[in-house]
Amino acid sequence: MGQVRKFDDIETSLAPLRTQGKKVVFTNGCFDLLHVGHVRYLQEAKALGDVLVVGVNSDASVKKLKGPTRPVQIENDRAEILAALGAVDFTVIFTEETPENLIHKVRPDILVKGGDWSIESIVGAPFVMSYGGKVMSLQFVDGKSTTKLIEKAQK
């Protein structure tokens, strides 16, 4: 089972794993209502390396991105649910609009986002590529989204 880490503690948590030569993969998102698209995506991300770190948007940033009725679940719950998944090693809540500062702390070997993101639009891509890291857009699971789940539940 993964662990929820504070923003300021993630570097310390990753240091011993890096000395063991572990490859760190990073992704981020709101993960408001977990669905099969999220699960498949996180499993694919984990398969690219040894350690998967997931940045979780704070409640305030989700509200800015998704609107006043979101998130459905609070940030601590979302982070804990994700950390309980077998594919996830660490979750970290970030409060900025983007995960750029968290990406600088994590310094992932591989930065990934879902297939609906082009490489050029992935936040942190230039930084990760600057030290030889990889940036990838993973497969998108069509028809699976939190917004669609909420719409269906409201009907």
Present the secondary structure layout.
Layout: E1 3-5, H1 10-19, E2 24-29, H2 36-46, E3 51-57, H3 59-66, H4 75-83, E4 90-94, H5 100-106, E5 110-113, H6 125-130, E6 134-137, H7 146-154
Parallel strand pairs: 1-4, 2-3, 2-5, 3-4, 5-6
Keywords: ATP-binding, Carbohydrate metabolism, Nucleotide-binding, Nucleotidyltransferase, Transferase
Protein name: D-glycero-beta-D-manno-heptose 1-phosphate adenylyltransferase
Pfam families: CTP_transf_like
Q: How does this model look, in words?
A:
The chain is α/β, with parallel strands linked by helices. The chain has a single domain, classed as HUPs (Rossmann fold), CATH 3.40.50. It contains 7 helices and 6 strands; from the N terminus they run E-H-E-H-E-H-H-E-H-E-H-E-H. Strands 1-4-3-2-5-6 form a 6-stranded parallel beta sheet, with helices on both faces. InterPro entries: Archaeal_FAD_synthase, Cyt_trans-like, RfaE_dom_II, Rossmann-like_a/b/a_fold. Residues 26-117 form the Cytidyltransferase-like domain.
